[in-house]
Every structure is written in structure tokens, then in C-alpha cells.
């Protein structure tokens, strides 16, 4: 019964650990995606900055290619780029918080495990029972040998 409980507990702990790892992995993926998009915005802005403001350029809006001027596109790109930076900062904060929570969870498990005296008490109880059995056996053996001697 005790092994089933510890097996269940171990399964729950493994599930919690997997949940933490999956959440961290998903956040890392989102961070990577946002970083890539922010880098693309920066690259386009760097390309458009030296161009004359009245020059034609094309911009994709909801899957539709739209003709605009550099003057019209740059402010929208800067706004989007700033928004991506804010989103990126927020995702990094979430990632760090999730990572800290996971570390606290791990440390909590180590402390609980170290403070958990029940397994040691069970072990001591088993030793006591074994010693009692040995004493009983040796007594009965000594009683039998005394009976045989008489």
C-alpha cells in the first residue's frame, strides 16, 4: 500500500514537473517568435530609413499587399516594433517568473523530502520487527534445544 501511495505521489510530481517544463518551453517558443518578428521589423525599418519619403513601397496587411509610401509605412512599422518590444519584455518576465516558481517548487520538494521522517520511521519499525522475530526465533530455538537436552 505504501509503495502504491509513493508511486502515485511520484507520478503526480512527474506530471507537475512536466507541466512546468512544457510551460517554459512554450514561453521560450513565443519569445523566439516575437524576437524574430521584431528583428524583421528592424530590418525593414533600417532598409526604409534612407529612402525618400515619397517613394512607393508595399506592405502586407491581413494577407493583402497594399501600396503605400515610405512616409506612411515607417510610423506604422515603428509602432508595431515598439509593441513587439513590450510584448517581448512581458514574455521574458513571465518566463523568469515561471522559472523561479519551478525552482521554488523544486526546493520545496527537497525540503519536504528531507523533513519527511515517515520513511525513516517505517525503516526503524521494520528493523524493530525483524529484531523481534529474530529474538522470538532464537528463544524458540533455545527452548527446543533445552527440551532436547532434558
Helix percentage range: over 70%
Widest beta sheet: strand line-up = 1-2
How many strands, what sense, and barrel or not for the largest sheet?
2 strands, antiparallel
Q: Which stretches are low in confidence, meaning pLDDT under 50 for 5 or more residues running?
A: 115-124
Count of individual beta strands: 2
- Beta percentage is 5-15%
Q: Kindly, what is the distance between the CA atoms of the first and last residues, rounded to a whole number of angstroms? A: 47 Å
Report the average pLDDT across residues: 80
Give the structural class. mainly alpha
Rg to the nearest angstrom?
34 Å
Order of helices and strands: HEEHH
Question: How many helices?
Answer: 3
Backbone shape: rod-shaped
Describe the 3D structure.
- The longest helix is centred in the first third of the chain and has 47 residues, at 2-48.
- With 150 residues, the chain is mostly helical.
- The model is unreliable at 115-124 (pLDDT under 50).
- Helices cover 83% and strands 8% of the residues.
- The radius of gyration is 34 Å and the shape is rod-shaped.
- Strand 1 (56-61) and strand 2 form a beta hairpin.
- Strands 1-2 form a two-stranded antiparallel sheet.
- Helix 1 (2-48) packs antiparallel against helix 2 (70-115).
List keywords for this structure.
two-stranded antiparallel sheet, 150 residues, mainly alpha
Reconstruct the topology from this structure.
Layout: H1 2-48, E1 56-61, E2 64-69, H2 70-115, H3 118-149
Helix pairs in contact: 1-2
Amino acid at each position: 500500500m505504501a509503495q502504491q501511495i509513493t508511486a502515485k505521489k511520484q507520478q503526480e510530481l512527474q506530471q507537475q514537473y512536466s507541466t512546468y517544463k512544457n510551460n517554459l518551453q512554450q514561453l521560450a517558443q513565443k519569445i523566439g517568435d516575437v524576437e524574430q518578428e521584431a528583428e524583421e521589423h528592424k530590418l525593414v525599418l533600417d532598409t526604409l530609413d534612407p529612402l525618400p519619403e515619397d517613394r512607393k513601397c508595399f506592405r502586407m496587411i491581413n494577407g493583402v499587399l497594399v501600396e503605400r509610401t515610405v512616409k506612411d509605412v515607417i510610423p506604422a512599422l515603428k509602432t508595431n516594433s515598439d509593441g513587439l518590444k513590450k510584448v517581448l519584455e512581458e514574455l521574458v518576465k513571465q518566463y523568469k517568473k515561471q522559472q523561479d516558481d519551478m525552482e521554488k517548487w523544486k526546493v520545496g520538494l527537497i525540503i519536504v523530502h528531507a523533513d519527511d521522517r515517515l520513511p525513516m520511521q517505517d525503516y526503524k519499525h521494520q528493523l524493530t520487527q525483524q529484531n523481534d522475530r529474530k529474538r522470538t526465533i532464537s528463544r524458540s530455538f533455545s527452548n527446543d534445544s533445552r527440551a532436547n537436552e532434558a
